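Database export, one record per block. Field names are fixed; values are copied verbatim from the stored entry.
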Amino acid sequence: MVILGSVPLAEKALISRLRRAARRRNANLVTGIGDDCAAIRLPAGEQALVTTDFSLEGIHFRCEWHPPEVVGHRCLTRGLSDIAAMGGKPIAAFLSLALPRSVSQHWVDGFLRGFLALADEFKVSLSGGDTAESPAGILADIVVLGSVPRGRAILRSGARPGDRIYVTGELGGASAALQELFARHKMRPQDFPRHFHPVPRISVGQFLREKRLASAMIDLSDGLSTDLGHICEESGVGAEICAPAIPRAVSRKGGTEVDLRQALHGGDDYELLFVAPRNKTVPRRIARVPVTLIGHVTRRKRILLMNENGVGSELKPQGWEHFRK
């Protein structure tokens, strides 16, 4: 991709560049960028999944910390992870970018490289969006369209007392990376790959749906304590989780586990938290991703964190929440 100028291209030229970059088509895309709306064909017998997420400079990323390719990758990951949490298949993405004049075209090109590389990996078409000038700060809004067999989407509301609680991967890596960045420590993206290049668990979500294993599921974007609270609230249940069982990320820089607080409350891991009936056998690995049993669902509507001695204390949601004082 050719780099031009020290500021973003004019809107018409920028859209033209986006259109050239978004050449991928799939069988579901009738028409994409170039018309007022995209026309997309849903597979027979399936229903649509639609999700949207902001990526805001100063909130979700900082240009001095995150290269533009990383920002683009993480932007699309946010939407794909939501589709994964419903057991769905992503089809198309829609990107709206608001850019200040101070942003270089070099940054925009890097953002698109990161975004489109992940889109190609999951065979997702960039099918439309919008561009605008921002008075201050970069804003990227991603909309992802997916599909799932009719009536088969995995919801947050299906947990029942006695169900077992599982989590994929390892937790706390993104939070630990941010702690290092705030402390102004030098860090390479490969030290905490789950922060800089998170992988949406699309294959895991589809496996759980196809095998009818998960009765409720959510992606871990706001932190385990907060996202487990969402499942419990929507299902009208409580939970007990075992602190020693929670899989904690290991820094490739120091080779040490993150602390428990980061694993409980840190967001941006984009792993899957799901519950399954006790009579279902859940593999220890799905699509090469480790799966860990961390607790069970209870009737009493509160969440308890159990220590190694079996003593419990109430776990309050302390993950990310906008506008919280």
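Remark 1: Residues 156-314 form a domain with the Phosphoribosyl-aminoimidazole Synthetase; Chain A, domain 2 fold (CATH 3.90.650.10).
Remark 2: Helices lie at 11-21, 68-85, 105-121, 173-182, 193-196, 202-210, 224-235, 260-265.
End of record.
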